[in-house]
Amino acid sequence: MLLEVDHLEVEFATGQGPLHAVRGVSFEIAEGEVLGVVGESGSGKSVTAHSILRLLPGNGAIVGGDIRYRGGSVLQYSPAALRSFRGPKVSIIFQEPGRSFDPIYTVGKALEETLRAHNPEMPETEVRERSIQLLRETHVPYAEQRLHNYPHQFSGGLLQRIMIALALASDPDVLIADEPTTALDVTIQAQIIELLLELKEKRNLAIIFITHNLALISEIADRILVMYGGLAMEYGAAGEVLAHPRHPYTRALLASILILGEHYSKETLHTVSGGTPDPRRPEPGCPFAPRCPLARAACRETVPALVADGTYHRCILAGEKPEDLYARD
């Protein structure tokens, strides 16, 4: 297996006590595979992604579990090994590309800095040729001329393409796409998704795609991980998770998707009442229990274990959940 996350636990130190951001999350990804990670804000998606690269802030710490790349523990890497891991092995596209660029650097300078980080002796002519090639590969028009432009001279969609080019500069095996379509209109979103899938096929990339949008990820993912309250609530093959969701939270997410052609007078668009749990004071039981229409007293007592039943799901009501829960009217 290319990359494995095994019972990962991440905490942040705060003035009010430890914040439990990730609570025993496990998954794996193979070469050329797309793993979709979905869930509400605060569910631990981005923290999990940043933990893989050990890019947590000073008050954050991995307090349990392991992260393995081709069988070796990333948590045991020396600083030198970690530098060789970030970029050449696993790379990341951060949220909101407009905030990820230095406004006083041209795009060419940003690409040059990235290329030279792992190839300091690369000749100037090769740096330029490689930069142009990366921009062309990500379909940035007039690539050669655009090297001299600054970030503010690009649209959001083009900046995202350049961010993808930067992430690919070191030829990684795994690309983490942390909400790469946020703040883009639907047409540009579709183009970015098409580009990522094209690059996946061309480079045999493994992609971890993090998003709020379950409808979007349903079109491209091989496997889906549903997170809530820092926990993996459901995990499995995309077709199985989408067609036969076992956890009520997964069903709630699916029921909240707008479907073209539906009308409010004929179909019900479900919402989930209540709010997400406080990670400083996690629920003693299932974190979704306060919002779940099927929750019983037992659901609030202990965190359910992951059960293998078509998918891996974290619900003690397996086999008792009505199939029409959150069904469209």
Mean pLDDT level: 89
Largest sheet: 8 strands, mixed
- What is the H/E order? EEEHEEHEHHHHEHEHEEHHEE
Distance between the termini: 43 Å
Q: Kindly state the percentage of residues in helix.
A: 25-40%
Number of helices: 10
Gross morphology is globular
Over all CA atoms, what is the radius of gyration?
21 Å
Number of strands: 12
Beta-strand content estimate: 15-25%
Are there runs of 5+ residues with pLDDT below 50, and where? none
* Structural classification: alpha/beta
Widest β-sheet, arrangement of strands: 6-7-8-3-9-10-12-11
How is the topology of this model organized?
Blueprint: E1 3-14, E2 17-29, E3 34-38, H1 45-52, E4 60-69, E5 72-73, H2 79-85, E6 90-93, H3 107-118, H4 124-137, H5 143-146, H6 156-168, E7 174-178, H7 186-203, E8 206-211, H8 214-217, E9 223-228, E10 231-237, H9 238-243, H10 248-255, E11 307-309, E12 311-313
Parallel strand pairs: 3-8, 3-9, 6-7, 7-8
Antiparallel strand pairs: 1-2, 1-4, 4-5, 9-10, 10-12, 11-12
What does this structure look like?
A hairpin with a 2-residue loop joins strand 1 and strand 2. Helix content is 29%, strand content 23%. The protein is α/β, with parallel strands linked by helices. The relative contact order is 0.14. It has an eight-stranded mixed β-sheet with strand order 6-7-8-3-9-10-12-11, with helices on both faces. The chain has a four-stranded antiparallel β-sheet with strand order 2-1-4-5. The N and C termini lie far apart (43 Å).
